[in-house]
Design goal:
The protein has 124 residues and is mainly alpha-helical. Helix content is 53%, strand content 5%. The chain contains 5 helices and 2 strands. It has helices at 2-15, 30-34, 50-60, 70-91, 99-112, and strands at 23-25, 43-45.
């Protein structure tokens, strides 16, 4: 997604210096072949697997308030997969990339995550 990455980089440089962007890639060195302008940028290699993405997310989120573990992220994914089936069934769709299905999926993730990540829970 070079276009979207370009937008994220441009936003940081032109509009909001506090905006942070990251590059995640499934394969080592593939970014250097296709986007040589990113040389010197840390690339988070996930090897195309959910656990790999989660491992790299925990590295990216090290300086954030919310720092979920891989186990917590996998638990969220498990519940979200169940929710995705229900969303697709309710909307009679095969894809989660339509506007309504995706919005429902994001909403579900927001409801599920606090039950697994303590820092996301509202204080009592």
């Amino acid at each position: 997604m070079p276009f979207e990455l370009g937008l994220a980089v441009a936003w940081q440089r032109i509009a909001d210096a506090s905006h942070t962007w990251y590059v995640f890639e499934a394969k080592v060195r593939r970014v250097q072949k296709s986007l040589s302008d990113l040389n010197g940028t840390e690339i988070y290699i996930h090897r195309g697997k959910p656990r790999g993405v989660f491992q790299q997310l925990t590295n990216v989120l090290i300086r954030r308030r919310h720092r979920p573990t891989v186990i917590e992220l996998e638990a969220i994914l498990g519940e979200l997969e169940e929710g995705a089936v229900k969303i697709k069934r309710a909307l009679r769709t095969k894809s989660l990339f339509g506007a309504r299905a995706f919005e429902d999926l994001v909403f579900a993730a927001g409801k599920i995550a606090p039950s697994h990540v303590a820092s996301l829970r509202e204080p009592a």
